[in-house]
Task: inverse folding
């Protein structure tokens, strides 16, 4: 039997939780469907912190300027102004709600990250900022009796009737069968798609499901070619690519090659604090030059006492792998980290489909342009989660129940055999993405990747595999179209920035790729 509610939120990271709290304020019933346990999300693992204008020597113009420079000509100025102005307001509110950011002598402590002109990054429990944000938001959400959180409820597709999104189809974890839920509006907060790549800092839930669902429902997708690779993921055989926060370089960490040389001097005058895309490409160049699979992060100039206190989670995790961050060189290499592209939205989280809203990493709001400034994404989730919630309440669509004909009526919780096939498909896609649609791309590699994806897509796939390979195709298609290098997108065959491409790629189902000068379609 179908479920009825007022608002459906998908995902329980910073964007989903903040949107739910906003929606519940209106007195509406809010149902949050989330794929795993409530805490499992990219947000939970965020380390470095959240950028915000709150320190005495900072101001909004400086934060905006840093964001615009990082975005390499593709940010939407109004979106950036909104992020920065509302960011301060919503962080102050979070502090009122009881979040514990780290302090020094009673005052908020700010750290430094790449491409920020000021120390403006707030952090919590040293390197566990995301965990603290999730804790505080879940505690706040629990005070709202009308929020119902459904963990382990994997959403598969959106229900669209007469060009309006009226509900979603998900796998009911108790019934172990597909089920529909209808509401006045759906807010997609499903996060990014780091898992598209063989090497990633993202947890397993980050498979980009919301992007694929929105695409299949007919929403416009923007700037899918822009993927951020984090330069310093711990690089050990048979271990996940655990993130070694940029804040470690912000506190004085140095990158060295296998000969112990500080190689960033050869690549950029900003050295280890050059923008992420530059540091990642420099590491790749250095690994190729020296014939190695990693370089090293050197924290040995800092005391063990300081490092243990400042980066407790990283300290303990490295210790688990027999590495002491204060005395050992830490092997690192780049890994996929963040998607700048996603569902095209206006400044209030409205997608191009009525009744469908989106917030957080699943979107392209125009805030990040071609490259996200470090620590701006937790802020984006907070700000645009709240704004999307506000807009969904204001738009006040009517609840509408339809007879939903599933595109894939056989869909159900997969049996072990089809699960095995799904795993094999995803493994192949991840390898191709890493090798051919990765940090360095060119026409030939992208064409070969697309050919493979088309071949995979022709086989009989489960919904989740179909979504996965479709997303891979979207990234490769826009990367092939963009014949220039800008921000997170680097083409070996077009290494320069080209003014002609100072536009956004837009993809929509059954339509050729187009471009648009602006992301924000609201005005
Ligand atoms: P997420 O937090 O990823 O939440 C997505 C939610 O959707 C999850 O609950 C997930 O389970 C759910 N979901 C996904 N698919 C489905 C489905 N099909 N059905 C139902 N539910 C679904 N950013 C910063 O600003 N500062 C940092 O210090 C920082 N550090 C980071 C460190 C790491 C290791 C990583 C991976 C990212 C980091 N980032 C950081 C990026 C930042 O964490 C994310 O961009 C941000 O948290 C995204 O928030 P979100 O709410 O959009 O998505
Ligand atoms: C980090 O701590 O290095 C991640 C920060 C971010 O992705 O914004």
Result:
């Amino acid at each position: 039997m179908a479920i009825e509610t007022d608002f459906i939120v998908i995902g329980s990271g910073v964007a989903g939780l903040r949107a739910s709290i906003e929606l519940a304020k209106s007195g509406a019933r809010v149902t949050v469907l989330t794929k795993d346990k409530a805490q499992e999300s990219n947000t939970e693992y965020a380390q470095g912190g959240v950028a915000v204008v709150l320190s005495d020597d900072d101001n909004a113009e400086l934060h905006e300027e840093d964001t615009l420079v990082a975005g390499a000509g593709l940010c939407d100025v109004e979106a950036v102004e909104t992020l920065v102005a509302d960011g301060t307001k919503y962080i102050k509110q979070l502090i009122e709600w009881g979040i514990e950011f780290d302090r020094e002598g009673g005052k908020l402590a700010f750290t430094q990250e790449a491409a920020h002109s000021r120390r403006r990054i707030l952090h919590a429990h040293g390197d566990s900022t995301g965990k603290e944000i999730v804790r505080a938001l879940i505690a706040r959400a629990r005070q709202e009796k009308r929020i119902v959180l459904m963990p382990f409820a994997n959403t598969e597709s959106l229900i669209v009737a007469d060009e309006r999104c009226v509900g979603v189809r998900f796998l009911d974890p108790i019934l172990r069968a597909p089920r529909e839920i209808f509401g006045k509006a759906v807010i997609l907060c499903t996060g990014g798609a780091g898992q598209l790549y063989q090497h990633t800092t993202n947890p397993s839930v980050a498979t980009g499901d919301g992007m694929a669902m929105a695409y299949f429902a007919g929403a416009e997708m923007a700037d899918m070619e822009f993927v951020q690779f984090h330069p310093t993921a711990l690089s050990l055989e048979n271990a996940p690519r655990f993130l070694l926060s940029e804040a470690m370089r912000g506190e004085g960490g140095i990158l060295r090659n296998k000969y112990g040389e500080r190689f960033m001097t050869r690549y950029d005058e900003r050295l280890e604090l050059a923008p992420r895309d530059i540091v990642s490409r420099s590491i790749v160049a250095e690994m190729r030059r020296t014939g190695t699979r990693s370089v090293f992060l050197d924290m040995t100039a800092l005391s063990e006492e300081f490092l243990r206190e400042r980066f407790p989670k990283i300290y303990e995790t490295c210790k688990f792998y027999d590495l002491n961050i204060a005395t050992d060189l830490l092997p690192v290499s780049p890994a996929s980290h963040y998607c700048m592209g996603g569902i095209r939205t206006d400044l209030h989280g409205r997608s191009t489909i009525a009744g469908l809203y989106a917030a957080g990493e699943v979107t392209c709001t125009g805030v990040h342009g071609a490259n996200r400034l470090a620590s701006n994404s937790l802020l984006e989730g907070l700000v645009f989660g709240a704004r999307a919630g506000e807009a969904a309440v204001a738009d006040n669509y009517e609840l509408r129940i339809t007879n939903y004909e599933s595109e894939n009526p056989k869909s159900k919780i997969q049996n072990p055999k089809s699960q095995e096939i799904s795993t094999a498909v995803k493994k192949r896609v991840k390898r191709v993405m890493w090798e051919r649609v990765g940090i360095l791309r060119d026409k030939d590699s992208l064409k070969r990747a697309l050919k493979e994806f088309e071949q995979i897509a022709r086989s009989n796939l489960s919904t989740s595999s179909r979504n996965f390979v479709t997303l891979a195709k979207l990234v490769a298609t826009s990367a092939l179209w963009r014949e220039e290098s800008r921000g997170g997108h680097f083409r070996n065959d077009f290494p320069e920035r080209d003014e002609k491409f100072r536009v956004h790629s837009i993809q929509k189902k059954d339509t050729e790729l187009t471009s648009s000068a602006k992301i924000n379609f609201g005005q």
